[in-house]
Specification:
- The chain has three domains: 218 residues, FAD/NAD(P)-binding domain (3-Layer(bba) Sandwich); 112 residues, FAD/NAD(P)-binding domain (3-Layer(bba) Sandwich), CATH 3.50.50.60; 104 residues, FAD/NAD-linked reductase, C-terminal dimerisation domain (Enolase-like, domain 1), CATH 3.30.390.30.
- By secondary structure, the chain is α/β, with parallel strands linked by helices.
- The structure holds flavin-adenine dinucleotide and 1,4-dihydronicotinamide adenine dinucleotide.
- The site of 1,4-dihydronicotinamide adenine dinucleotide has 27 residues, from helix 6, strand 12 and strand 18.
- The site of flavin-adenine dinucleotide has 35 residues, from helix 1, strand 2, helix 2, helix 3 and strand 4.
Length: 469
């Protein structure tokens, strides 16, 4: 087999594998170098997919505990954690194998090893176990899609036993009596919800005085109340200064973020979820002269090109939201650009979803961002409490909030907490892609009785003419 390719992709996550397939579709001879034994990257192996499998399993368990509200008596429910985790592992296994199938179908050559950029046009593949010879691949273009890794917290050493990252938190050997989560962001609240539903007492320690800081402030406040009602305890404006693990548990030292008296908390496990950082370790960037930006991400121009001709980068390792669907869009656009086509991703219209119950979904600008940019806007809100479908199912927490430009009525941001929010946000992303006004959405016929009517009503509320509130 010749080791000369049109494109060598380093990293087989949602960014890398999608780019490899798209490039192959466009007629390129493509190789993908992945150091894991399975394809799919963080998302499939230890991220999106296993977390959603556990979120769903734990949600079923929680729903059963509310069955009585629907006149259903269920006796003797218990958790078989081992089976629940095996099911999750099987879902991951099947999906990663699926990508092998897609690679075969599209004739993408896969190399299992650690890829190193050796400069323009060359990638070395080192065996992961350090044994065996290094292979050299020649490439017209190189695409770096190496993703991200857990942000470490000084004083809190992750051992993946008692002090875990999201990866360890997806496979705890038991339901903790007490779980402390450091970081009130997406991972902390999704995985905190999983273990709370399965029976753990969960405390979230968040440095800021609010949770989900990237989201709209009002949504953050409402979400906090909902999670507190579900039984999660929050210590906001608090920092962890140390965590000491033993065989039996962890002693965590906390203090107010602004300084003050220290306190200790005993827990069975600690989850560190304070963000992720680009993964560029041992990638040969410095030696090849590939520039990073001030945030440590690979610097690219509007066409995913680094400062070195023929070397591109996409996904979590470059700027923009660290999300799988963003990485995929980057991958498609970068492959199309390499093939001489146009490719562009509008990061303002990348939706973000937190898969708790209720879900939190958002796209576009927050109120805080509009204020900061001095843009005048109208707000339309509609609570799920007033939505007939929500009343039928009992999922009445949350609201839809639409922000529309005051003069043009163009929808600038949509924020939803509620049932199926992650699915429903798709409607407004499409609308915003076509520059819809709030009135456009308000005049679209929505099915009844459906949660999506809350979107229509919020759009009507932006023009002061909501019907059902
Ligand atoms: P990655 O998926 O990180 O893939 C990079 C790949 O490159 C890895 O497989 C790595 O092994 C490989 N690699 C790195 N360096 C080298 C090298 N030198 N040589 C060879 N291979 C290398 N996003 C969502 O959109 N929705 C979600 O629900 C969601 N849930 C998440 C839950 C968790 C717990 C976590 C941690 C993340 C979640 N994410 C979610 C984020 C999502 O996983 C990432 O945004 C996405 O995986 C980024 O894709 P990527 O291709 O850029 O990088
Ligand atoms: P995050 O950025 O979402 O949240 C981190 C939180 O930790 C923030 O609230 C931050 O203020 C807080 N924090 C930072 N330093 C702290 C400290 N020292 N002590 C206490 N709190 C501190 O990061 P997270 O949750 O780790 O997730 C990483 C990324 O993974 C997300 O930003 C997202 O891009 C992706 N992800 C996406 C999911 C989805 O789409 N459903 C699910 C899970 C992860």
């Amino acid at each position: 087999m010749s080791n000369e390719f049109d494109l060598v992709v380093i990293g087989g996550g949602p960014g890398g594998y999608v780019a490899a397939i798209r490039a192959a579709q466009l007629g390129m001879k493509v190789a993908c170098v992945e150091k894991r034994s399975t394809l799919g990257g963080t998302c499939l192996n230890v991220g999106c997919i296993p977390s959603k499998a556990l979120l769903h399993s734990s949600e079923i368990y929680e729903e059963i505990s509310h069955a009585k509200d629907h006149g259903i008596n269920v006796k003797g429910t218990s958790i078989d954690l081992k089976s629940m985790l095996s099911r999750k592992d099987k879902v991951v296994e099947d999906l990663t194998k699926g990508i092998d199938g897609l690679f075969a179908k599209n004739k993408v050559t896969r190399f299992n090893g650690h890829g190193i950029v050796m400069g323009k046009g060359e990638v070395a593949v080192k065996p992961v176990d350090g044994k065996g010879s290094v292979e050299s691949l020649k490439a017209k273009n190189i695409l770096i899609a190496t993703g991200s890794e857990v942000m470490p917290l000084p004083g809190v050493e992750i051992d993946e036993k008692r002090i875990v990252s999201s990866t360890g938190a997806l496979s705890l050997p038991e339901v903790p009596k007490k779980l402390v989560v450091i970081g009130g962001g997406v991972i902390g609240l999704e995985l905190g919800s999983v273990w709370r539903r399965l029976g753990a007492e969960v405390t979230v320690v968040e440095f800021l005085d609010r949770i989900i800081p990237a989201n709209d402030g009002e949504i953050g406040k409402q979400f906090l109340k909902i999670l507190q009602k579900q039984g999660i305890e929050f210590k906001l404006g608090t920092k962890v200064t140390a965590a000491e693990a033993s065989d039996k548990g962890v002693k965590i030292t906390i203090e107010p973020a602004k300084g003050g008296d220290q306190e200790t908390i005993d827990a069975d496990y600690v989850l560190v979820a304070i963000g992720r950082r680009p993964y560029v370790e041992n990638l040969g960037l410095k030696e090849s002269g590939v520039a990073l930006n001030e945030r440590g991400r690979i610097q690219v121009d509007g066409h995913f090109k680094t400062n070195i001709d023929g070397i591109y980068a996409i996904g979590d390792v470059i700027d923009g939201p660290m999300l799988a669907h963003k990485a995929e869009e980057d991958g498609v656009a970068a492959a199309e650009i390499m093939a001489g086509q146009a490719g562009h991703v509008d990061y303002n219209l990348v939706p973000g979803v937190i898969y708790t119950a209720p879900e939190v979904a958002s796209v576009g600008k927050t109120e805080e961002q509009l204020k900061e940019a001095n843009i005048e806007y109208n707000v339309g809100k509609f609570p799920f409490m007033a939505n007939s479908r929500s009343r039928s199912t009992g999922e009445t927490d949350g609201l839809v909030k639409i922000l529309a430009d005051k003069s043009s009525d163009e929808v600038l941001g949509v924020h939803i907490i509620g049932p199926k929010a992650g699915t429903m946000i798709g409607e407004v992303v499409t609308a915003m892609e076509f520059k819809a006004s709030a009135e456009d959405i308000a005049r679209i016929c929505h099915p009844h009785p459906d949660y999506s009517e809350a979107i229509k009503e919020a759009a009507m509320a932006a023009g002061n003419r909501a019907i059902h509130i």
